[in-house]
Amino acid sequence: MSAPQPIDPQTQTLIEQVARQLHLTAPAVAAAVGLFGGGATVPFVARYRKEATGGLDEQQLRDVQTAHAEAKALADRRTAILNSLAELGVLTPALETAVRAAADRATLEDVYLPYRPKRRTRAQVAREKGLEPLALRILSQPLNGQPQREAQAFVDADKGVGDTEAALAGARDIVAENVSERAEIRADLRAAALRHGRVACKKKRGELPAEAQKFRDYFDHTEAVAQLPSHRYLAMCRGETEGALAVDLQGEDQAWQAEVLRRIGHQPRSPFGDLLREAVADGWERLLWPAITSAVRGELKERADREAISVFAQNLGDLLLAAPLGPQPVLGLDPGLRTGCKLVAVDAQGRHLHNTVLYLVQGEASQARAQQDLLRAIDKYKPVAIAVGNGTGGREAEAFAKQALRDANLAKLPVVMVSEAGASVYSASELARAQHPELDVTVRGSLSIARRLQDPLAELVQIEAKAIGVGQYQHDVDQAQLEQKLSEVVESCVNRVGVELNTASASLLQHVAGIGPSLAKKIVAHRDEAGPFASRQALLKVKGLGPKAFEQAAGFLRIRGGNEPLDASAVHPERYAVVRQMARDLKTDVAHLIGNHGVLQQIDTKHYVAGDVGEPTVRDIVSELDKPGRDPRQQFEVVQFRDDVRTMADLTPGMRLPGIVTNVAAFGAFVDLGVHQDGLVHVSQLADRFVKDPREVVTVGQRVEVTVVEVDLARKRIALTMKQQKI
Fold it and tell me: Of 153, 243, 237, 173, which is closest to residue 199 (Cα–Cα)?
């Protein structure tokens, strides 16, 4: 049984810090961190260790995991800096206190900056020339003295100091670096820039390519840092990367420089006052403001990345948990005009049965043959639906299929438009080639379209998440963070739904808690060689799958029709004894207990609380027995587009249409109307009330009714509204 790992004093300190940060109790955080340290996964802890963590949900557990990793990284960096300062022989009690007091990475690096090994700077060169005493005179701002005369003492041709001006210039370089590296000044300026700074965009000088016009809204644009939405900042960054925009940070330079002078004790009456002002101005332009700009833009980028990744993750989760048609035979139709439509038939388990090509635009004779081929496939393979890809030619293929069905008195057979996003990526992938080496790449695409109607989750996990097309600027954000977050979403969705052990692909199994790619392949290989698993316990016969992996994975795997009826439920094998005791107490057997609501109501959950089995676990067991293996996804519903609207040219303002939400961003939702170009419902148009977050109203895959507000054919933009009031 998975138990928390012992916690050392340093970890305990980090735990208390994380608990305060997340407003959680320290014991709950400690339990979670200990379980993770022992190899437990988030889905497992969330589902099967509620007593240990006080019932932390999956998101809270992931927050703990992330915050603890960040706190540990900061603590490790703090230790490394203290060791470096000690080795350099500069670690004073005051400096150590400053290092230990630094609450974040930026402040910590500010404290370390003056001592950090760096390339030779102008200030270092000046120090090597012996000019530091003169720099200290400038910094001390005495009310007496003669800078030129004092500088004369530092003139030394052998050291490269040819005259007093060279001596004073070198001293100013030292002062400029000294002031620019002061931690408190950098911290305060960063905060001021984040509160009062502005991001300014200008059109890049010179002639721009035609595609740069998509950034014309930013050719002369300034926006406050504090109010800048993440999606706009990412758009600015993309324009900068593509050479269309020049992006800069603007601040209150004169006022802020004056504040710096005041903070370092500038004395206008001092003979050295002008030298200090010149040094600060030089340091501002050359060192300090570029560093502040880099830090602020870095923080803006991190913030924008987090928000964009969060939106992408939420959309992906909605898409993966879209309602499945279920294990039923389906025809898949990948539209194509010149090259023809690729038709495939799959059985209830998604296995390829048949494929052919239907030519729809090569004349009446070819269209007649296509209709005959479609009807023969329907007659032979008995599909319960036809899935049509929504790419180019999709509406034409849909219209053809519907007409063929009407002509054959089969109009009740649903024709469903299915998103093609990522289908071409899958069809050309190494995985698809390994699964179907005998099939052409175009046929594999049709196969994917058919199977994603049957079970979106099982099919889409085979496609790189970034290629599914429910994010914005996914190629502009931190790729490591994106991959991590999307992996968490896939893991969460797969484990929420559960996986049929005897039919799941290795691509699906690898996302089950505790399994991973290598074990998934071994499970499938064992299943192919030895036949279907008769029980969850039989998993332990798989080479390389030990007790720890079994503990983490077993509760999320389903075996229907096996030797153990509880194997079809989410009850973990470690709790089967509890269920058997319930059955004995009720004088029945386990099989009769499952799904028997009347009998289950008689259970007193408190009676089974003992040891590490708390009431939350007992309640979960009873709930699962009531509806064993329940799929959390919605019931499948066919969404039909209007037959008379196939292209943007068919749209007119005021037209009311059905649509499917394909993407949700911070500024609104994109809706597929079946015209090959998604329309945008701006956040201000999502409802008759104020909407702060579009996800309050819509989710990916949701069926909606929209009204066309504006159609811009030249720019391929469709403005929509979901408001009920007249436009």
Answer: 237
Please name the residues in contact with 645: beta carbons below 8 A apart, sequence gap of 6 or more: 651, 655, 657, 673, 674, 675
3-class secondary structure, 570: coil
Single-letter code of the amino acid located at 488:
E
> What string of H, E and C letters represents the secondary structure of 396-463?
HHHHHHHHHHHHCCCCCCCEEEECCCCHHHHHCCHHHHHHCCCCCHHHHHHHHHHHHHHCHHHHHCCC
Structure tokens at 124: 């270092």
**C-alpha R_g of the chain:** 33
> Which amino acid would we find at residue 584?
R
Closest CA to 300 of 256, 247, 257: 247
Closest listed residue to residue 385, CA positions, set 452, 330, 347? 330
Cβ-proximal residues to 83 (8 Å cutoff; 6+ apart), any chain: none
How many helices (H) and strands (E) would you count in the chain?
30, 15
Domains of the chain: 9-114 (1.10.10.650), 330-454 (3.30.420.140), 648-721 (2.40.50.140)
Cα 285 to the chain's mean position, in Å? 37
Q: Tens digit of pLDDT for each residue in 356-396?
A: 999 987 888 888 999 999 999 999 999 999 999 988 888 88
Cβ contact 661:669 at 8 Å: yes
Give yes or no for a contact between 467 and 486, defined as CB atoms under 8 angstroms apart. no
CA distance 277 to 281: 6
The SS3 call for residue 236 is: helix
Rounded to whole angstroms, the Cα distance separating 687 from 714 reads 28
Give alpha helix (H) positions in 533-662. Answer: 547-553, 576-585, 590-593, 597-600, 615-626
Write the pLDDT tens digit of every residue in 565-621: 999 999 999 999 999 999 999 999 999 999 999 999 999 999 999 988 999 999 999
Q: Which residues contact residue 33 at a Cβ distance below 8 angstroms, ignoring those fewer than 6 apart?
A: 4, 7, 11, 15, 18, 64, 68
**pTM (whole model) above 0.90:** no
